Amino acid sequence: MATLSEFLSRLYTVATVFFCLLTLEAVILFRLVTGSITNSDNRGVISTSQYLQLIEEKNPAILYTEKLRQQSVIECAVCLSEFLEGESVRKLKCKHTFHKDCLDKWLQQYLATCPLCRTKVLPDEIVADYHQLQDQIDHYDGSDEEMIFLLSALHGNGLQRIF
Ligand SMILES: [Zn+2]
Ligand SMILES: [Zn+2]
Q: What is the pLDDT of residues 23-69, one digit of tens each?
């Protein structure tokens, strides 16, 4: 009988540990799902692809041509290299022109303004919404790491108790 009750108690421990793990994993899954629903609902947050799409709508990428060179559009002020014919560039409303990739990176990492004259490229509220989402993602990363730490700690303790 002693072995049976010992077996049952071990079974109970295993069941408890698995239940805890399941609950925590369900919480993580729920947060991921609700996070993605918020994004697609577009309620005050903008994803990176939506943000880039807005930049494209306002300042469509064009190919660099000899005609632009004649208009004294020579060099990208972000990477400081000369434009080559056929490269994708964006000409902003302020008439400053940059490589498409250079400008997009700039607008994502820094302020949504022209790197040269600081003219706004996108309205403030769109930039605020975009950075709000980035902050949320940073926050998610932190807490999920905590969750994973918690999961592994729990798992480790459970194993020590069982074996
Ligand atoms: Zn460039
Ligand atoms: Zn400018």
A: 878 777 777 766 655 544 445 788 899 999 999 999 999 999 999 99
Please name every residue paired with 120 in a beta bridge, in sequence order, or none if there are none: 113
The Å distance, Cα 65 to ligand 1 centre, comes to: 15
Nearest ligand by distance to the CA of 92: 2
Is residue 142 in some structural domain? yes
CA of 116 to the centre of ligand 2 (A): 5
Q: Which ligand is in closest contact with the Cα of 98?
A: 1
Token pair 């040269």 is found at: 116
The distance from CA 67 to its chain's CA centroid, rounded to whole angstroms, is: 37
Q: Which ligand is nearest to the CA of 81?
A: 1
In a domain, 79, yes or no: no
Q: How many CB atoms lie within 10 A of CB 101?
A: 16
| Residue 64 lies inside a defined structural domain of this protein | no
* Domain assignment present for 13: yes
Which ligand has the nearest atom to the CA of 87? Answer: 1
Total domains in the chain come to 1
